[in-house]
Amino acid sequence: MRVKDVKKVVLAYSGGLDTSVILRWLQTVYKCEVVTFTADLGQGEELEPARRKAEMAGVKEIFIDDLRETFVKDFVFPMFRANALYEGQYLLGTSIARPLIAQRQIEIAEMVGADAVAHGATGKGNDQVRFELSYASLKPDIKIIAPWREWDLTSRTRLLEFAETHQIPIAKDKRGEAPFSVDANLLHSSSEGKILEDPATEADEMVYQRTISPEDAPDKATVISIDFEHGDPTAIDGIRLSPAALLTRLNELGKANGIGRLDLVENRFVGMKSRGVYETPGGTILYAAHRGIESITLDREAAHLKDSLMPRYAEMIYNGFWFAPERRMLQALIDESQKSVTGRVRLKLYKGNATVIGRESPNNLYSMKTVTFEDDQGAYDQFDAQGFIKLNALRLRLGASAGRKGGSL
Question: Are residues 216 and 349 in the same domain?
Answer without folding.
Answer: yes
